[in-house]
Amino acid sequence: MSIDYQERIPNNVDLNSDRRLQRALEHWQPKFIDWWKELGPESFQAADVFLRTAVSVDAQGWASYGFVKMPDYRWGIFLADRVADRTIGFGDEMGKPVWQEVPGEYRSTLRRLIVTQGDTEPASVEQQRRLGLICPSLYDLRNLFQVNVEEGRHLWAMVYLLHAYFGRDGREEAEEMLYRHAGDANNPRILSTFNEPIDDWLSFFMFTYFTDRDGKYQLKSLAESAFDPLSRTCTFMLTEEAHHMFVGETGIGRVVQRTVEKMQELKSDDPALLRRHGVIDLPTVQRYINFWFSSALDLFGAEISSNAANYFGTGLKGRPDEASYADHSLLATEHTLYRPDGKGGVEAETVVARSAVNHMTRDAYAKDCEIGVKRWNRTLEKAGIDFRFQLPSDRFRRTIGVWANVPTDTQGNPISAAEFERRRGEFLPSAEDRAYVKSLMQPVTEPGKMAAWIAPPARGIDNKPVEYEYVHLQ
Ligand SMILES: [Fe+2]
Ligand SMILES: [Fe+2]
Predict the structure, then answer these.
(1) Fewer CB near the terminus (10 Å): N or C of the chain?
(2) Does the residue 21 lie in any domain?
(3) Residue 256 belongs to domain with CATH number
(4) Rounded to whole angstroms, how far apart are CA atoms 324 and 103?
């Protein structure tokens, strides 16, 4: 169904035909706008921003570009088209028709899954709200705002499901989404990663590369859900998510590019010298990777999880690209993972595969993370630089799962707590690293100009040149 932009709430779910639902959402809408104005991007609410908006949900050409003031962005409800005769693709109900309504026995579990996903969307907008003030270019500023408005739309996607399928509890949960705030001591966001402020652009690029990619894998798992409206919502959200990860991958790539140019010019890899010349040395970038990758892994939950097994068995949440696997029951196969043996070594543990769904999803995620690492390394290789980026081991700096609070080096070798502390500055960004990166964050807002620590992008947005005035500042 095409998107109706004549409505107060743009949608392709025929909202018109359900007056009660329409009125409930129209009641929530001004609260959302108030939240956006108060906790969305600071200082840029009156600027005209070159943004894309969904005009249809099919794979080709769903986006239209134009200037819009962010509070006027047409947030709406867009679901991917219904797949005729879709059946459940995994678990105990495999082969049965998918659900168009929520089965009573799964109501609270499903609501919890939707609320947890939904809560991350406005959280990231709040975390990133001050980044515009220190943007490296208008091109980047525009990309930040594109990500922010789409995370706002992802909140709409989850709020729609809550309103449409969960009655009064759903409406209450939708209200709560606007009352919890990232970093609020009394009323924080649900997942701890989403309470940390993102106050420099290297962190923003790491967030969009690693954390938004966790979002991709959560959405892919939910897109497999037997609850069809959730599946269709997540399928469309994934098309928007791709741009967020593009921002992260190219952002980090441009930082690396700029540093490489400086290294060649100075014929040096000395971090102190490079810092005096205003670029981010490669070991610092690696430490940021170590930090963000390890914190993203925790978002997948414990490797062995009865909750995940339960979601899988009941059909609530599958694995990303479930159809690409051979076994969709996971009761007759086993899965082996490695855990600390409690004596400073490692031992194998074999469990029924259904208990290890989180582990499989996380492995698929880690593999996907390698793609960018390879691209960044190609830049180094081409420049004749020996340094190579590497994802840290999935045992490194974990706070959840079998490796929780077991100190290891970035290769995953168990080490003593004392050694970890001694080498902390080798593994993770130090206060000094962070202060240095922050010191570089001076706003650059002249069209086409870039901050000195980042290379320009290879191309602009929507075939516009890089020098295009992507944001009209007031
Ligand atoms: Fe999102
Ligand atoms: Fe995102």
Answers:
(1) C
(2) yes
(3) 1.10.620.20
(4) 27
Q: How far is the CA of 299 from the centre of ligand 2 (A)?
A: 14
* Strands lying side by side in the sheet with 48-54: 63-69, 48-54, 471-472
267 lies in which domain range? 15-472
- Ligand 1 centroid distance, CA of 285 (Å): 25
For residue 450, is it within any domain?
A: yes
Mean pLDDT over residues 251-280, rounded?
A: 98
pLDDT digits (tens, 9 = 90+) for 380-418: 999 999 999 999 999 999 999 999 999 999 999 999 999
Considering its fold, how many domains does the chain have in total? 1
Q: From ligand 1's centre to the CA of 241, what distance in Å? A: 6
Q: What is the pLDDT of residues 192-228, one digit of tens each?
A: 889 988 999 999 999 999 999 999 999 999 999 999 9
Nearest listed ligand to the Cα of residue 219: 1
- Percentage of residues in the chain having pLDDT higher than 70: 99
In a domain, 10, yes or no: no
* Residue 124 counted as domain residue: yes
